[in-house]
Here is the input.
Amino acid sequence: MIGKGGAGKSVISGTMARVLARDGRRVLALDSDLLPGLSLSLGAGPDPAEPPLNDAAEQDENGRWRLKKGIGPVRAVKRYATDAPDGIRLLQAGKVPQAGLEPIMGSINAFYRVVHRLPDARTFDDWTVVGDLPAGPRQIAFGWAPYADTYVAVVQPSAQSALTARRVARIARSRDGARAVFVANRVTGPADVRHVEEMIGEPVLAAVPVDEAVARAELLGFAPIDHAPDSAAVLEIERLVTALADE
Here is the structure.
């Protein structure tokens, strides 16, 4: 999931992961955003104060980070991913504490190395991987989602959001074999959808409406699919999952 900050990436990716898991898929959720979001949208509760992946990393004699001996993607998920509802496994790069990035540098480096080895791990061939990336193009450009076949760019009906989505989609599509689709979020009706499509220059795959029930869930720190399972936004995200599968 990619796009501008505040576009609703975590809500959509967390809800998609839950929908997929309820459909019988084995789901691995990957959270490389250093700010809170995906864990709450999944219904997994607050992020841990100490990222579990810190224990998977060490520094060599030159101070460079590396995975500890014997830690590959399968063992990393088994040991350091946490449980989320509906059987989802959640692996996080870590969240920035008050002290800054230094306390989580081991986790960040371990996460990067694990996800780069993930596509070669046959254990996950029948898993569905859902990733939530931070705002902007940096992580996409520097290969933080090598596991992704499809990037979903989330766009609100604003010029800044559309411009960001177009740019990050262009970067994503530069990867061999990768595709990018657009989802309009927090739209008030067909006019908003048309406006988004005009700004990005192509159709959107889904249009998630403004939904007070989802806003309330976010305010309370609940997963939208738990707090408002029959809300218009959750139902449209379910339709998005079907549309992605059909493509």
The chain has ten helices and ten strands. The chain has one domain: 2-246. The two ends are 17 Å apart (CA to CA). The mean pLDDT is 96.
